[in-house]
Amino acid sequence: MSRTPRNAAVRFWRDPDLPEVEVRQSSYNEETFRRHTHAAYSIGLMDGGAASFMLEGAPHRAVAGQLVLIEPNRVHACNPDRDTFFAYRMFYVDAAWLTELAAEPDAPPAPGKQDEPARPDAAGEGARPAGAPRFRAPVVECAETAAAWSALYDAVTRGGSALEKQSLLAQAAELLLARHCLADHAMPPGHAPGNAPRKQPAPPSPPAETAEVVEAVRRHLRDHVADPVRLNDLARLAGRSRCHLLRMFQQATGLPPHAYQTQLRVEAAKGLLAAGHAISHVAAETGFSDQSHFSRVFRDLTGATPGQYQLGGEAVGPAETAPAD
Question: pLDDT of 2-11, one tens digit each?
Fold first, then answer.
């Protein structure tokens, strides 16, 4: 199977007025994505076709008119159904920004909480429970929410005023929090297609010692994102056998350490590409063996070439031809 999708259209917008969100428009007619994660919240509008995807081992399907909602760092791979296509608009919303918005005292209550009095904090003001927002389900159908994010897309792509775009983003995010996030921001026990979470026992939380070990390995990979890292070194750092560490890390993150480091490299590459660095320089700076290897991995994890991604930051307007990778 080719990893360069035929008849693919990809466009990115990185608006200086909205540093907390990256906007994307794409369409594909064949399998494109491998299992990957995003550091941001992913809010997708399905514009056409149908897509099936695995989200941390559970199957889901989305069709035109529905929204796809994926939390940061959750392993997934969305691809068109066989013999069809899918077209979508995606918003990658900064996790810290959305979490801060959710914690504001006057943020909207989640469904089922509207009639409950706000719990006062130390200052006597009502506040949402602390913690990162958690979606109720990964696939939802809500015309009002879709319209709010579509209005933001229109404003970004036509170059609306800063105030208009910032207001539309806040309104769309507020609606997302009110309609589609759990009231206590707890991880749902399981997601089923559609609007209702699947009834399953919540998986046990990993022991504190396990969480500390995994975080130490993640931190080491972040600190050495462009460096060659050996499994022996990670096992020594973790104080575990190599096989035990691999099982522990993948259970906690959904990815083995090498794939996790590759994801970190691609995220770092996005920042360098957006800043205008040459693709060959980005490949070298992020630890890839050569530009060809970098372009192939970048395309496999993002569905776009480095050139297409970089072109998205140059101007807001109609799609253009990307430079060769």
Answer: 344 444 688 9
Contact 255, 263 (CB under 8 A): yes
Which DSSP symbol is given to 325?
-
Helix residue spans in the chain (DSSP H): 95-103, 143-158, 162-180, 208-223, 231-238, 242-253, 257-274, 279-285, 291-302, 306-311
**Token pair 């997708």 in the structure block, residue:** 44
Q: Structure tokens of 46? A: 């399905």
d(CA 51, CA 48): 9
Q: Please report, as a single letter, which amino acid is at residue 69.
A: L
140 with 226, same domain?
Answer: no
The total number of structural domains in the chain stands at 2
Residue 193 near residue 60, CB atoms below 8 Å: yes
The verdict on residue 195 lying in a domain is no
Domain ranges, residue 238 = 208-311
In whole angstroms, what is the distance from residue 219 CA to residue 213 CA?
A: 10
Q: What is the C-alpha separation between 244 and 234, in angstroms, rounded?
A: 11
Q: What is the pLDDT of residues 107-146, one digit of tens each?
A: 555 554 443 333 333 333 223 334 899 999 999 999 999 9
